[in-house]
Amino acid sequence: MFFRYNKLIKNALKIEKKETKKANALGYIARTLAQATLPHTDPKLPIGTLYSRNTGQLILSIIPTSPRHGIPYGSIPRLILAWICSEAIKTKQRILFLGKSQNDFLKQINLHNNGRDIARFREQALRLFKSVISIEYSDEKKNDLSSRLLISESSHIFWNTKTNKRQKKWESSLELSDGFFREIIAAPVPIDMRVFHALSKSPLAMDIYTWLVYRIFVLQKSKRSSVFIPWVNLKFQFGVGYPNTNQGFQDFKKRFRLRLKEVLLFYKKAHEHVKENKIGLTLTPCKFHISSY
Fold first, then answer.
1. Residue 192: closest CA among 215, 213, 218, 219
2. Is 244 helix (H, G, I), strand (E, B) or coil?
3. What keyword terms does UniProt attach to this protein (predicted)?
4. Could you tell me which residues are beta bridge partners of residue 149?
């Protein structure tokens, strides 16, 4: 634990030396994905079973469409989605070019071109692209609204699995579905990809980072003096895998505090604007994480 935290401090100090845009590290995540999250670990649901997260205002469900692949989980789908959202915003195109080779693309999402990372990447990519993301939420008038998003309609993502292993064909582009593309473009949340990669050992830390950046932005724009989020709401949003017991609740709070502390190493502007007590967190307005946004 000490080694991890010490490494994060070093990364934070290094990142601090160069502004996000100048470091060519400006990325984006869809607003929806900053509010409701994928599982952190394998939910071990039977193949074909729906996964759902409820924030109170938004319900995100993941519906697998393949009898061979389950629910995407962990850091890799988050890295893929952040890359997709970032490229869609930068290019304003539904067709995204993935690079000249598998190695080239893996570098872009901070993975290595070795057997272990390739196997993990392939499995999680197939889970992700063979799922439908369903979003349900209510507007201020309490009208129920929903949309179902298929990330890509392509059946061959990144490689052609029928080719010889030594001569794998690299599928150099990915075409996003129209619905997912419009969801990204509608309200992207700016993030620093260096921070996202630095936190990638913990999917929870990645989620807290994007969530905090988004909540501070919304708070500033609303001109409210503060917003209070109860611990129970945070557990609904982030606490998948923790049992609905008092011990499960305490374990979640302990882990959330730890990962929030790590996130605040990189978002120092927010450090004095996130206060906690026994029943929840209070956020107050501060400067945006990426100053030019």
1. 213
2. coil
3. Plasmid
4. 133
Whether the Cβ atoms of residue 267 and residue 212 lie closer than 8 Å to each other: yes
Please say whether the beta carbons of 61 and 51 come within 8 A.
yes
pLDDT average, residue stretch 138-151: 62
- Identify residue 138 by its one-letter amino acid code: S
Which of 135, 133, 134 lies closest to 58, judged by CA?
135
Compute the radius of gyration of the chain from its Cα atoms. 19
Count CB atoms within 10 A of the CB of residue 263.
Answer: 25
25-76 residue pLDDT tens: 999 999 888 988 899 999 888 888 888 887 777 788 898 888 888 999 999 9
| Positive or negative: CA dihedral 278, 283, 288, 293 | positive
Q: What is the pLDDT of residues 76-106, one digit of tens each?
A: 999 999 999 999 999 999 998 887 777 888 8
203: its two tokens: 């999917």
Q: Are 20 and 192 spatial neighbours (Cβ–Cβ below 8 Å)?
A: yes
Residues β-bridged to residue 51:
62
Q: What is the pLDDT of residue 151?
A: 84
Whole-number Å distance between alpha carbons of 165 and 205: 36
SS3 per residue for 16-33: HCCCCCCCCCEEEEEHHH
Could you state, in order of their start, the residue ranges of all structural domains in the chain?
Answer: 2-283
Tokens representing 62 are: 């993941």
Q: Which two tokens stand for residue 190?
A: 């700016």
Q: Other C-beta atoms within 10 Å of 292: how many? A: 9
